[in-house]
Amino acid sequence: MTHSPQNRTNILQDRYGLKTASYLSAGTANLPYDIAERLRAARVQAVAVRKVARMHTATATAGQGEGSVLSWGSDEGFSLWNRIGSVLPLIVLVAGLLTINSLQTDRFVQELAEVDSALLTDDLPPAAFSDPGFVQFLKANL
Fold it and tell me: What is the span of the domain harbouring residue 106?
C-alpha cells in the first residue's frame, strides 16, 4: 500500500506522539495527584490543538487550489497576467521544437541534394546504381 509523503509524515508523527504519550503516562504513576492531573489536562489540550491544526491545514490546502485540478474559469487568484505567465513557457517550448524540426529537415534535404548533385556530376556507369554495394555505400554516407 503506497502513501503520499505528507500522509507518511503524518503517520510517523502520530506514532511518535502515541509512543511519547505512553512513556509520559507510565511516568505519572510516581507523581503526586495534582501534578499528574495538570499533565493529563495539558496532554488533552495538546491533542485537541493538534487535531484542529490538522483539520485547518486540510481546509486551507483545498481552499488555495493546490489540488490536482486547476480551475481556469474561476477568479480565485488567477489574473490575466498569471494565466499568460503559465501558458507562455508552453508556447515558447512548442515554437522551439517546431524550429528545431524545421532546421533538421532543411539539413537533411540539403544533404540529399549534395549526394544527388555529386551522383549526377560524377562519371558513373548506369549499372553502378543497381549495385547493392553502392546502395549500402549511399546509405552509410547519409
Answer: 79-142
- The total domain count for the chain is 2
Average pLDDT of the segment spanning 4-8: 81
Question: Is 47 in the same domain as 93?
Answer: no
Per residue in 85-111, pLDDT (tens digit) is 889 999 999 999 999 999 999 999 999
Question: Rounded to whole angstroms, how far apart are CA atoms 8 and 16?
Answer: 12
The CA distance from 92 to 126, in Å, is 49
Question: What end-to-end distance do the CA atoms of the chain give, in Å?
Answer: 52
The rounded distance, in Å, linking the Cα atoms of 108 and 138 is 14
Identify the residue whose cell numbers are 495539558. 42
Place of cell 549526377: 120
